[in-house]
Design goal:
395 residues; alpha/beta; 5-stranded mixed sheet; 12 strands; 38% helix; globular; binds pyridoxal-5'-phosphate
Length: 395
């Protein structure tokens, strides 16, 4: 969809509610309905042939989408001022992989942040490597000048994830993008933690902004979906790459993600308020050595968070003082309201022991085992009481 956002003058919360709801797709209803199809029937051969090359807004074949998928894509595009379009993928991991594949060719080098989500790292080390694309990791605490010093003639892309997975360092995204743009290097950001509501990536210089919509966009722990929103310069290449590899998402998942998107503003602010309240409480607990939360002063890159973000979400980590792995496991297993499980971004609280040191090139020393928390939409006082009980269990 290369139409520019329809409501650039409206505030983000208004765009969350109205984005992608074109009258011709709604058919008089509030939500764009689930349109399932493989085959599309045409009046005649000429109109069938005119539907190609496929484009959003014109029915051609199920793999190329129906109004259900186009509407979600357009709503996500409207959240990033200046975006040319959004392509949906069957998971966040697929969105990351295809975004990278669309900007890199054999012989190129990628600069990848060391704190990237682990499957992103695995894709680089195994997937890109097979195609003759080299990955060099850089410290998430690196300044823009330090990143610039790492560039070589073959560097064609810089990938950021801010804050980083598990350790939550916030990067100087605008600074790194300015360096990259001067040299024609593509910039990619995994923006899943903040979403475009709390960090507008394209206005800050990013070329391809990636979301695991599985998390806050869907918001109910019942959908796998990813998206990539790009500038005009990267839009055709992303589309071509996705089509080449037959990428397609179901209308049912798109519908659920769009339904989640409408309430993302209120959900995220509730996640934010509760997470900050609980993070501050945790800072005062004797068994907590560190709270890794971008909105807290001690978090590396906190000043970038303050400068560039309009909010924080519900995911952060704690370091348990002098605790070994067994104590972290006992802590997590002693919690009653926090589920034990991967993922985050749903309505429910989650906890799990994490091990950033196992797959990092730039190690940091931690004074104990680490636990990642996702603060859900429960009453935060109940969550505090639950955490207090778990501290007693490991006392
Ligand atoms: C930061 C981040 N990016 C991408 C992904 C991948 O998303 P998905 O699980 O939808 O493939 C995840 C999943 O946990 C994630 O945490």
């Amino acid at each position: 969809m290369t139409d520019q956002p329809k409501r650039p003058d409206k505030r983000p919360d208004t765009r969350l509610v109205h984005g992608g709801r074109r009258a011709e797709w709604l058919g008089g209803m509030v939500n764009v309905p689930v349109s399932r199809t493989s085959t599309v029937l045409f009046e005649d051969v000429a109109s069938m042939e005119a539907a190609y090359p496929p484009r959003d807004g014109t029915l051609s074949y199920g793999r190329n989408g129906t109004p259900t998928q186009w509407s979600l894509a357009e709503a996500l595009t409207e959240l990033e001022p200046g975006a040319a379009g959004t392509r949906l993928f069957p998971s966040g991991a697929a969105a990351v992989s295809f975004a990278l594949a669309s900007v890199l060719d054999p012989g190129d080098e990628l600069l990848m942040v060391d704190s990237a989500y682990l499957p992103t790292r695995t894709f680089c080390d195994q997937g890109l490597k097979r195609y003759g694309i080299a990955t060099r990791y850089y410290d998430p605490r690196a300044t823009a000048a330090e990143v610039e010093a790492l560039l070589s003639d073959s560097t064609k892309a810089i990938f950021m994830e801010s804050p980083g997975s598990l350790t939550f360092e916030v990067q100087d995204v605008p600074g790194i993008c300015a360096v990259a743009r001067q040299r024609g290097i593509a910039t990619l950001l995994d923006n899943t933690w903040a979403t475009p509501l709390f960090f507008q990536a394209l206005p800050r210089g990013i070329d391809l902004s990636i979301l695991a919509c599985t998390k806050y966009v869907s918001g109910h722990a019942d959908v796998m979906l990813g998206s990539v929103t790009t500038t005009e310069a990267h839009w055709e290449k992303l589309n071509r790459t996705a089509r080449l590899y037959g990428q397609s998402v179901s209308p049912d998942d798109s519908y659920l993600a769009a339904r989640g998107l409408r309430t993302m503003g209120v959900r995220l602010r509730r996640h934010e308020d509760s997470a900050i309240k609980i993070a501050r409480w945790l800072q005062g607990q004797p068994r907590v050595a560190d709270v890794l939360h971008p909105a807290l002063k001690a978090c590396p890159g906190h000043h970038f968070w303050k400068r560039d973000f309009t909010g924080s979400s519900g995911l952060f980590a704690i370091v348990l003082k002098d605790a070994d792995e067994a104590a972290a496991v006992r802590f997590v297993e002693s919690l009653g309201l926090f589920g034990i499980g991967y993922s985050w971004g749903g309505f429910e609280s989650l906890a799990l022991p994490v091990h950033p040191e196992r797959a990092r090139s730039f190690k940091r020393d931690w004074p104990g085992a680490m636990v990642r928390l996702h603060i859900g939409l429960e009453d935060p006082d109940d969550l505090v009481a639950d955490l207090a009980g778990a501290f007693q269990a490991i006392a």
